Amino acid sequence: MTGFDRESRCYRGRVADDAVRAVAALDEELRRRMYMFIRQSPAPVTRDEAALSVGISRKLAAFHLDKLVEVGLLTATYAQPGGIRRVGRAPKVYQPSDLEVQVSIPPREHGLLADILLDAVRLQRPQEHGSDAALRVAAEHGRTLGQAERERLRPGRLGPERALTYIGQMLERHGFEPARVAPTRIRLTNCPFHPLAAKDPGLVCGINHAFLAAYCAGLGATTISATLAPRPGACCVELHATGPGQPASMIGDVP
Asked: How many angstroms separate the CA atoms of 182 and 30, rounded?
């Protein structure tokens, strides 16, 4: 098996993220009912209160509650219910965490698209067309993300294969389902902006292209080009090494 085959399989295999584990934890009915009880409670809930809400023992309730803490759906602290001081150790109390759980197969990134469009409305320049503002802001988002990743990784000079490895990791996180079809080429098998892309493919695909091209520029991946290559049922952008006759500067040719 070649190196890029292994990387492609690794990308596609990273499905067990926090959201999936959280949803799996809620598959158990008693656990789910306790979680909903705690979410609706105006104050942190003790193990006794949680147990009583579903009619089970305190010990069994503790097991389920700690599972919910483990996957990030609840947080646990020690406190006196109602603020009343009592003799002995304060009981453990549970309350909802700020984890937002959303699972989509295939993955969707409507939040990223919404952020770009919201900023485009907020930051639209005088006389600037709305779609131009969206493309400009998408490029700014992508470039900022790429620069932050370069600062975190400090990768030095990036050759095409290593650059695509780093880019593929970001693409996987954002639901593009990258397939490393060659050492220097990535195709994106999922559009994380679907089905919104179907309503205005020109705008959404343009935003997607501007975002990814600018990400490459921010990362310092000057040997990689993001090009529009629409395929049915897949993402409209493809990433590949810059060809021999193609100037690397076209990477930055985004709004």
From this structure: 48
